[in-house]
Amino acid sequence: MGWKFTWVSSYGTDFNYDFQASFTPEEMAKGRVEYNFDLVQFPSAEAPGTSVFYKDQDGNICHTHSACARGTENTVNTYNYLDYVPKGRDEEGLPFTMSWLRHHDRYDDGYLADADRPYWPSGTAIRSKGMAGEV
Amino acid sequence: MPTRTVDNPKVVSRELWLADRKALLAKEKQLTRERDAIAAERRQLPWVKVEKNYEFDSPGGSKALAGLFDGRSQLIIYHFMFGPEWQEGCPSCSFNMDHTDGALGASRAARRFVCSGFPGALGQN
Question: Does ipTM surpass 0.95 in this model?
């Protein structure tokens, strides 16, 4: 995707589970998961979030903050631009607010916001109205 | 609140526009001050000590959480939706990350990492 930031993988660790960005099959089977500091229905075993940590000079690490769901919008500057224009985000009527989005190298292959295309793999999620925008 | 202004716009004189714009500006200023106040409150939240030793796979090999700070005191991790069985990462997360490279100039203040549960994501840049 041409990004310059650094990826790391938490595969095999509790990290994403401890910070409520991934849910176990057992949690998903219960129908409600702990997300955004609440027990909610969530359509996917993976969830968006931003977590912040501080390390002092002795090497102690503390978790200081986490933002989830629409709390992660703060870093999406495109929304700030869209909020300036008359049509706004123009997301009414979509199955979930961000369903018009594509990977940045796929906007030129002819499709617009096709409402029926889920972006999580089948079998890992329950389709429902409302993604990050409503939880 | 009407959501589709473009279907039925109200076109007025510059003078009338200015009056409404100023009224909205007062609310915008209020929001700006409230955002500052909430950010200050956020900075004053208590902290929780991380007791577990998390080990991440990184392009440079295995790294502990402490190693991700890379000499800095503050670390921001974005949890990118990219599960082990997924074929590709979440488009909405990708959209968010499209905004992150531009913010890397601020990395003197905090180290930023994007984290996912998918080992293959290491090769996705």
Answer: no
